[in-house]
């Protein structure tokens, strides 16, 4: 009788953990397959065309990894501060 109760208790404790781990892995797989349209921002698993706006998904550059597309080391941002009290603006 104690073995049966111990097995049921172990199942009730471990089953939510296993389901959570399986859900996390499934979520990661789905996130890797999602593509975001550069025109409208819609995320889809479509391979060629965006289902929302119909534009073609951009093909990655040859030999470029996704992280290399947004390399900010060579970017300069000029900022101009404008005051509301400044009469010249």
Task: Sum this structure up briefly.
The protein has 89 residues and is mostly helical. The protein is 36% helix and 4% strand. The chain contains one helix and two strands.
Describe what this molecule looks like in 3D:
The chain has 89 residues and is mostly helical. It contains one helix and two strands. The chain has a two-stranded antiparallel ribbon. The mean pLDDT is 79.
Q: Summarize the biggest pleated sheet.
A: 2 strands, antiparallel
Q: Using the CA coordinates, give the radius of gyration.
A: 25 Å
Q: What class do helices, strands and sheet pairing give?
A: mainly alpha
**Which regions contain 5 or more consecutive residues with pLDDT less than 50?**
none
Q: Which features characterize this protein?
A:
single chain; 89 residues; mainly alpha; two-stranded antiparallel sheet; 1 helix; elongated
Topology overview:
Blueprint: H1 2-33, E1 35-36, E2 43-44
Antiparallel strand pairs: 1-2
